[in-house]
Give the backbone structure.
Amino acid sequence: MSTANESESATASLLTGVTAGGSVKTKTPHQRITFTTKRRKMSRRANLIGICGVSGLCILLLIATTQHRPLPASLASSSAAVGAVGSGSLGGNAVVGSYSSAGNGFGAGSVYAGDRFNRAMPQQTAVVYNVTATIADVLAAQRAKIVVEMEYFDYPSGRFGVDAEKLADLTPETEGTPVRSLIVASWRSGSTFLGDILNAMPGNYYHYEPLLNFGIKQIRDPDEQELALKNLKNLLFCDYNNQMEDFLEYGKMHTYLFEHNERLWTVCKEYPHYCWRAKFLTRFCKLFPLQSMKTVRLRLSTAERLLEDKR
């Protein structure tokens, strides 16, 4: 009987935590730490399983929604343009495609049509250039724009020492004398802002920092001063043919040399194959009745010699 009573007491103590003598049986610190650690591990496993499940569901939904997504409108229009080039329906316009993503297996600058184009990367862009227009066509279009710009221009008609009464009196193309403005300044002086104000005048052709190829300095060397004066005179008189090769080559790699000249740069973006040709630039420049120039690299003493030219 005593053995049975002891067994019942032990069972009761396990269930209630109270010993036969009435004392409460407590867990040791080690047991509590072990139990807490197990709960934390189980909680982490549950969280990990939940995260994996949600991530998998998101991936499946993403795949399902992109399986039959239609081609974006920009790519669809570009695809149509490329297809037109293949059939010759653009009348001589060239479409040049470029890819910004490497490793696509096609190579940069390639042109695609049909299904291969539809599988192209989203970064693909298509630029249409007019390759059939001649220099005469471009000049005629710009000449018409200048006429519109100058429609309400108040011609000097004897004021300020300028006798011009009509557009032809100011355009070098028609043996006229343009109104020339020269800004000689230093860095951080607001000269770029002033140059942009002059460039806002109708019919203005802007020579922005034409001495950029001399470096970031004011020109003091006598030989460089002579070359700088020669280049500036050539530009002010629209002569890109007179040993201006270095200037044009520099501009090809530093396009901001032309970008500030908005009227020229607009044409350059449409007809890039003409943009750096001396023959084209000379004739294009002579269309404009107003000519402005801004430079921070020329010394005032050197600029004085430029202003002494009575032409």
Residues 29-66 form the longest helix (38 residues).
